[in-house]
Amino acid sequence: MQTKSGKALHPIGIGTWMIASSFTFDPNDLYRGSRPDTTNEPAEIEAIRYSLSKGQNHIDCAELYGAFYTDEAVGKALVGTTREDLYIADKLWKSSVATGKVRPTVEKMLMKLGTDYLDLLYIHNAWEDAPWREALPQIDELIDEGLVSHFGVSNFTVSQMQEVMKLTKHPITANQVEYNVLFKEKATQEFQDFCRTSDIQMIAYQPIKRTEVIDNEIVQDIAKQHNATPAQIALAWLITKGAPPIPKAIQKAHIDENLGAVQIQLRAQDIEALDRL
């Protein structure tokens, strides 16, 4: 995969949900109960460094994760890396989209990550209770100034993307959506076709529903035929769909397992069987 700027990306990105953080859903909390958690931070930082050493370079972050602390942990992992080799994405939470909020939030992201620009800035969701449209002209300004290279959305529908296109100067370059072999409800054919014709890159979050995927008999059968694991088959399927997955892995064995998916060549009948799930 190549970005619009020509940067080559590894087919599998680095997800950071629950890195140096914990989560107990609390609808009354600004960050829904996401909090810093340094219990396993050294090992998690080492896992990111290991992933980078294996060639992964697309790192997906969010203000929501750890109430900004995940960004800080990622920044620690990136010390000593070559910035030009990386593709760093971050997401604005609902508290940071109103007029006057985007710039200070992005500046905070940059400080915590230890970089002077983001490759991609998402709006995390099209909330009904937050003025996400107000973020668009602010993001345009940051792109013009070079603090942000590209703009994306997450969990936006086709109609919402169409609305964005009427309101922003710079194009949507990515839409991050929940998508895996067992969950295709959001990435409908209409959605995929619109992204393709609009040159919007689909990014798949929650690409491995581990228990559900591992226990699925069809996925298991295809995995056996390829001498692979069910998780690898799930990732390989997303790669064939042109939707780079961003799994989170904090154990070297899981990282190596995920990366093995790149070598798997699914057959047409495999893809058809997985499509039908």
| Cα shape | globular
Strand order of the largest sheet: 1-4-5-6-7-8-9
Q: Please name the fourth-level CATH homologous superfamily.
A: NADP-dependent oxidoreductase domain
Question: Given this structure, which CATH class is correct?
Answer: Alpha Beta
Q: Give the DSSP E fraction (strand runs of 2 or more residues).
A: 15-25%
Low-pLDDT parts are none
Summarize the main sheet: 7 strands, parallel
Within the CATH hierarchy, at the fold level, what is the topology? TIM Barrel
Tell me the layout of helices and strands.
Elements (H helix, E strand, L loop, with lengths): L13 E2 L5 E3 L10 E3 L4 H13 L4 E3 L8 H10 L8 E6 L9 H12 L4 E6 L11 H11 L2 E7 L3 H10 L4 E7 L10 H9 L3 E5 L4 H6 L1 H9 L4 H11 L11 H9 L7 H8 L2
Parallel strand pairs: 1-4, 4-5, 5-6, 6-7, 7-8, 8-9
Antiparallel strand pairs: 2-3
Helix pairs in contact: 1-2, 2-3, 8-9
Describe the protein's architecture and organization.
- The protein has 277 residues and is of the alpha/beta class.
- It has one domain (14-208, 243-266): TIM Barrel (Alpha-Beta Barrel).
- Helices cover 39% and strands 15% of the residues.
- The chain has helices at residues 41-53, 69-78, 102-113, 135-145, 158-167, 189-197, 210-215, 217-225, 230-240, 252-260, 268-275; strands at 14-15, 21-23, 34-36, 58-60, 87-92, 118-123, 148-154, 172-178, 201-205.
- The strands form 2 sheets. The chain has a 7-stranded parallel β-sheet with strand order 1-4-5-6-7-8-9, covered by helices on one side. It has a two-stranded antiparallel sheet with strand order 2-3.
- Helix 2 (69-78) crosses helix 3 (102-113).
